[in-house]
Amino acid sequence: MPMVTIRAFEGRTVEQKRKLAKDITDAVMKNFEVEADRVLIHFFDIPKHNAAKAGKLFIDP
To answer: Of 1, 2, 7, 59, which one is the catalytic site residue?
Structure first.
């Protein structure tokens, strides 16, 4: 069972996730030769206060 994990900053709409899930499922089906019901996708919404780059939180100026 192919599993895909999407980690992105929060703020995407349900519709955006729905469209992305469809596109990813189609790509996995084509390339891994599996049926749609075998593709598992997890979305993780990351708050900007829970991530940092170069020593600064993404919420910091």
So the answer is: 2
pTM (2 decimals)?
Answer: 0.87
How confident is the prediction along the chain (61 residues), in pLDDT tens digits per residue?
999 999 999 999 999 999 999 999 999 999 999 999 999 999 999 999 999 999 999 999 9
Bridge partners, 45 (sequence order): 8
Q: Which domain holds residue 10?
A: 3-57
Based on the structure, what is the number of domains in the chain?
1
The answer to whether 2 is a known catalytic residue is: yes
In whole angstroms, what is the distance from residue 30 CA to residue 27 CA?
5
Domain CATH code at residue 32: 3.30.429.10
